[in-house]
Design brief:
The protein is mainly α. It contains eight helices and no strands. Helix 2 crosses helix 3 and helix 2 crosses helix 7 (about 170-180).
Length: about 220
């Protein structure tokens, strides 16, 4: 039975995830470098135009991070959908099927991403080429990703007082206050982004390797079609 190819999508999604993490770290660095400019503007030492000029690069990087994150999210969800659809077609269906691979990202409790975590666990098991796939042991990287992406960010959200990280579209005074007051939260988000991206890339590559062995898809020929 023909199966949906996942190799190309897996590669593209991991590249975008890595770019998103790098943009996040770059934004944290640029934000830290702009603290003095923000203080000078808030103290009335410099003008609004001077602050915007000094901080414009950071806002551009933040926008690029948002765009790459959206693209990475779309491809990652499509990757999960194709794998779970293949499992269904191969008779390895479970409660966490293709519909949950998509909908699980949008149902409560949202930021915790419990359902995607459960879907990924099942994807690992069902991608085992052996006949005893139901008893396949799930590696620690699945739980590590969940902690870094679903649980640890709650500390960052709490630290920023639910005030938001983004400066795009906000007033100049609000952006300057964010630069000064949210340094720790922004650094935390940047570091967690890199760690979470690393765990996700390892996880995606591992599941993709198992799944291509199951479906006989050669990794080198895996396109997004």
């Amino acid at each position: 039975m023909p199966t949906r190819r996942i190799g190309g999508i897996a590669t593209a999604s991991t590249v975008l995830v890595a770019l998103t993490a790098l943009f996040g770290l770059a934004y944290a660095v640029m934000n830290a470098l702009a603290v003095d400019d923000a203080r000078a503007y808030l103290d009335g030492v410099t003008t609004e135009d001077e602050f915007i000029s000094a901080y414009g690069g950071a806002l551009t990087v933040q926008l690029l991070q948002t765009l790459s994150q959206v693209a990475a999210g779309v491809l990652s969800v499509l990757w999960m959908f194709r794998i779970t659809s293949n499992h269904r077609d191969l008779g390895r269906d479970s409660f966490w099927g293709p519909a949950w691979a998509v909908a699980g990202w949008f149902v409560p409790p949202l930021i915790l991403y419990v359902i995607p975590f459960l879907v990924l666990r099942q994807m690992w098991k069902a991608s085992d080429p052996g006949p005893d796939w139901r008893s396949s042991r799930v590696p620690p990287v699945v739980g590590i990703w969940f902690v870094l992406y679903g649980i640890a960010p709650l500390a960052v959200v709490a630290a920023q007082g639910f005030g938001g990280m983004g400066g795009v579209g906000a007033g100049t005074d609000s952006v300057a206050e964010l630069v000064v007051d949210q340094q720790s939260a922004i650094w935390g988000a940047g570091v967690l982004g890199v760690l979470g991206a690393g765990a996700w890339i390892v996880l995606v590559r591992a599941i993709t390797e198992r799944h291509t062995a199951l479906t006989a898809e050669r990794p080198s020929s895996g396109g997004a079609s």
